Amino acid sequence: MNFKIASTYGALALAALSVLTSCKKEFDADNYVAYFGGEVENPQSRYVLFCQNNVVLDTLPLKADNTFFVKFDSLAPGLYTFKHEPEYQYVYFDKNDSIRVHIDSKDFDQSIIFCGRGDQKNNFLMEMYLRNEKEKNKIFDILDYEAPKFLSYINKVNADNIAFYKSKKEEIKWNDEFDVYAQGMYLFPHYTRKEIYPIVHKMRTGNDVSKALPKDYYDFRKTIDFSDEKMTDFSPFVMYLNYMLNNVGSIHYHNHFSEVDLALKTNVNKLKIADTLIKNEKVKNIVVNSIAFQYLLEDQNMVNNQEFLKHYYKIATDKSKKNEILKLGKAINQLTDGKKLPSVTLLDAAGKNVNSSSLITKNTILFFWSEELNSHLVAAHKKALELQKKYPNYEFIAINLDKNPNTWKEALTKYSFGPIRQYHCSNFEEIKNKWAITKVHRTMIINKDLTIKNGFTNMFDIRFEEDLQ
């Protein structure tokens, strides 16, 4: 902890103590009064949103000194989120908690420190979140491991997390309601790694490791309540559920169907499983929307897309997300092979806006990266440099998707990207709507006449080079 953060923490602690002292009578009463406040360094806007289940409960304006504060006359114990766009994090309130938080928007997650009544539980959640993020950055490499080595690695990580959880539980002595989330912070990321492994390992290496897995590999699924309403807005659970359905929904029809038709049947099956398995409507909507986003980005058969959407619309009840899916479908329709690539505005290293169409004068490979996903950043550029030597008739252009252009500029000075041309996405909504970009793991192959050769591929797919011949 550096001096600046320590000083800020001390100031926040004194402020929290003042609130606790002045409000002791209210805490002694039989009510649910609670307090939430803090300070935002380098604010990106003049407010903080206080939310639960993706619903904004209160908008907290920043004062001239970039602090905010609110008293809740009645706040039910539970998990909430606070958002300072575009970032968010969790905060858990017990009865009568008084919590203050320090935030620096330039390093949002790393900067967060809680103090006041209820701070220890929330600092534990942040520590677990950062431990999981550290492992998430490593997952790109360990998915190539053979089964015994992979299991040894993730079991060691899980054992360390369990030991950390137990020590903090003994120290803080939190209640059973909070314990649901405390356990979820290490359990669901561990389960997610297990669900991801066989799918991604096969995609990247061509080897099916399913037969090499222990017989009890998936037994943990029996212990999960997939309709637990408390998990509706808990991203570790929602993320796990999404990957689990990828596994359970996979169907093997051998040679009876083409790859495209097999993808349709698999994803319709996933929708049906989610509809049957998940009784909670909010959780169900989150999951089926995720299935729809993934399927539409991976299968560009227009006839099959319409068939899939028929099933999706029967199950989904979230109107706003239905509209997003509709927009995505329209964008994908413009990115089919042979069509001209729609132009978007990008930012060059000199800080000038450039039209994407003006950058493509020869056969070009576009790929995407974010400084937040460090392992992918390094692996993607390494792969691009290898391919550029092998296919000199192709130009390689990397597009950074970080929200802050300063983060991109810092990365340009930190890494050596060689001859790969670098640009920044200055308007993510535009690139999402025109190029259907929702994640960094995407590659586009564009002909020199700006027509699309393959708009939905991945440099790490074992069949990627077939399109470059």
From TrEMBL:
Regions that span the bilayer: none
Domain Thioredoxin: start-end pairs: 335-469
Alphabetical list of Pfam families matching this protein: Thioredoxin_8
Signal peptide (UniProt feature, chain positions): none
Coiled coil regions in record: none
Protein name: Thioredoxin-like
